[in-house]
TrEMBL record:
<comment type="similarity">
    <text>Belongs to the cytochrome P450 family.</text>
</comment>
<dbReference type="InterPro" id="IPR002401">
    <property type="entry name" value="Cyt_P450_E_grp-I"/>
</dbReference>
<feature type="binding site" description="axial binding residue">
    <location>
        <position position="474"/>
    </location>
    <ligand>
        <name>heme</name>
    </ligand>
</feature>
<dbReference type="InterPro" id="IPR017972">
    <property type="entry name" value="Cyt_P450_CS"/>
</dbReference>
<keyword id="KW-0349">Heme</keyword>
<protein>
    <recommendedName>
        <fullName>Cytochrome P450</fullName>
    </recommendedName>
</protein>
<dbReference type="Pfam" id="PF00067">
    <property type="entry name" value="p450"/>
</dbReference>
<dbReference type="GO" id="GO:0016705">
    <property type="term" value="F:oxidoreductase activity, acting on paired donors, with incorporation or reduction of molecular oxygen"/>
</dbReference>
<dbReference type="GO" id="GO:0020037">
    <property type="term" value="F:heme binding"/>
</dbReference>
<dbReference type="InterPro" id="IPR050121">
    <property type="entry name" value="Cytochrome_P450_monoxygenase"/>
</dbReference>
<keyword id="KW-0479">Metal-binding</keyword>
<dbReference type="InterPro" id="IPR036396">
    <property type="entry name" value="Cyt_P450_sf"/>
</dbReference>
<dbReference type="GO" id="GO:0005506">
    <property type="term" value="F:iron ion binding"/>
</dbReference>
<keyword id="KW-0408">Iron</keyword>
<keyword id="KW-0503">Monooxygenase</keyword>
<keyword id="KW-0560">Oxidoreductase</keyword>
<dbReference type="InterPro" id="IPR001128">
    <property type="entry name" value="Cyt_P450"/>
</dbReference>
Amino acid sequence: MSDFSALVTLLAAAATAVALYAFVGGVYRVYFSRNAHIPGPKLAALTYFYQAYYDIYPYQGQWLFHQIELHKQYGPVVRVGPDEIHIDDLDFYTEFAGTSTKRRDKSSTWYWFTGMKSTVGQSAFATLDHDLHAHRRSAMNGFFSKRKVQDLEERVLVHVRKTVDRLLEYKNTGELVDLLFLMSALTLDVISEYSFGNSVHSLDTPDLGAPFRAQMEGGVQLHPVARRFRTIIRFMIEAMGYASKYLGIFKEFKEFDDMIADLTDPAYKKALQEGDDGKNATETSIVQAMVYSKVLAPEEKTQLRIQAEAMNVVAAGTETTARTVGFLLLPKSHDILTDRDQIAVGLFHVLNDPEIHSRLLAELRTVMPTATSDIPSVIELIKLPYLTACLHESTRVAHGVAGRLVRISPNKDLFCNNVKIPRGSTFSVSHYIHHTNQAIFPEPHAFKPERYLGEKSTETLRYLVPFGKGPRMCLGMNLAWSEMYLSFAALLGRVDMELVETTLEDVT
Ligand code: HEM
């Protein structure tokens, strides 16, 4: 046999071996793996590229809606990936979320950025292990407690007053104001001050901090791609200085990373300088709270790790709340004009319905008699049942966290509708699907504050979980509520708005 034909034979044998390995591996995945008993499309069981088809190309961002179709076909528990199970069962939510003793890890198939040096890789949010997450989070819990948020209410109010002033600047100018940008500027200024003791002052910029928003959006859009091409993307991001300089990619990512580093550095150094002698330790920022933390292990207090935590808090605390208030608060008025495209989310729901609008305003006027009255405190606003119901409904329809939440039960099998979810398998839920459940939220796409006022309100509220549940639920929930109450009361109570040329189609 010539050398050439020997080489061809060898290559053919290698190719056959690879094909056989892939075939046997594929058959094992679909028919014999620990998730084989779970109903779902065979292609999804075979490869995660099934999800990519609906998430990246050709159907960009359509996976969530495809999941709804899968549940109609296969039931409440569906295998949506080789090792991922998606669940649509409202009563399973508490079990999904776990407790401090019912361990819930996160899954690396979803959290592609876990452990990275840049971005939020070292944050509690990105921590897969249940115990390490609890340890990291414990250093921040106190700073976001009800009590602390109440003590720091004036910080939120300063920015809320400025937001109203910025909005009123547009009065009678005929200029468009993008309210989503305005609300993002508010929430970004609040959370940056919380994190670093120093706001980024986006409300003071002419474009309302638009570049920050673009930076954060860049990160969000990367997720589906990064989940599929994890190693490459992780490598490129870790080397993003070069990627952004020489390839022109990850520019926004790099800018966001640099901005957070620039804000963390002085806050961190100041905290170290002041020291925790009981006199100077005022705990005025998250960075400070972490540096002074008595519970965090020393290796958890490095500048890089605290920076990751701060970055996550800024990213998680900006768009979520802005979107929720925006959903409720989107004016297009004769005095104040808003950008048509951004009408997609906002005050629309209140202004679109004269009955809701006048009922809400009448209730608000009991604590804020005129447009020039002081903005009431959260303690006063919380007592207004209709306002509270409107805010609850807004958290439902705004879908602050639109992507799915993903967990693993590492040492115990779980059961949902008698279907076993094997220990170690990744399982997920989607708030969009949860909060549009017809049985609990009839006419799910309609804005109906009365859901939370009538006879069934207790049951409805039981299923309303915009901030999640369990040990990994939203860290900033109390702050978000404070921002929502104050900004909503201020905008509605101080600015006279009415919708122009906007219909329900603009927001659905
Ligand atoms: C209406 C506004 C908000 C909504 C709907 C919301 C929703 C959520 C949800 C559902 C989670 C759980 C994610 C998961 O299970 O993987 C979460 C986590 C988180 N949220 Fe929020 N959030 C909001 C505002 C905020 C604010 C203002 C902050 C600022 C501190 C914040 C900080 C965080 C952090 C740090 C986490 C990660 C917690 C952890 O992993 O332990 N969120 N949020």
